[in-house]
User: What shape does this take?
Amino acid sequence: MVLSLETFIQDFRNYIQYLIDNGTEIKTYKEQKNPLKYLKSKKIGVNLDHHKDIVLQDETKFELGGINKRSFSIIHIFNNSNFVEDGKITLIGREICDLKESNIDFGMFILISGTDFTESIIKEMRQINFISNSIEGFSIRSIPQRFWCRISKNIIKNLSFEFLGNAIMYLYKEKFKDIIESIEILFINSYPKIIKQFINISSSILKADREKWKKKVDEWKKRIDCNYDWGCEICPYQVDCQDVKEVLIEREILDEENKP
Assistant: This one.
């Protein structure tokens, strides 16, 4: 069963309230009124595509998520701004200054609303490498089913999830000016069971997205009468098909991993 957006958002809000009622460590922050001034005050560079250096292992202070940890990065995009609490940053878990382990479970959940979203814009919004390339000392890496971030020793003194949330909001609004109406961010760390539950809550919406992509693939096949008989290396639709195949494979694996 595919949930409506209203039901999905209600489940999302209800689960956060359930966690609060049961004493889970949760903090909330608000987007700064003057984000650029705030970001500059922390002495960590935040500029679109100006910080493309990879954080190497020996330069790393913390690794959030990764191969041996439960992790996710989910971005939901809506046309209805009523679903998103603009400027709200929620942290389930500990602040960076309170982390003890060097590698922890981590999830990042971004809700975006706006108007005039084309398929190409939505696809671009979900390509979060621009965040990695725009924050000094913060590197994002991802492979199917796994997502993780490295934080450099050089910025750890001034970094917090409040800063990171503000930086991500600022970068999205800079990159997609006049398109985004509201944005909300949730970070989860140190709670692998909660991370899994959020993936489960989101799985219905992910399924709907996957079905939309599958329909697009089927339409392409009909339009070009493709039965995959020719070699992909000479196919004029190779790049588009590969992009869609990768998305479908990753989402099918995610659905399988979260089956009860």
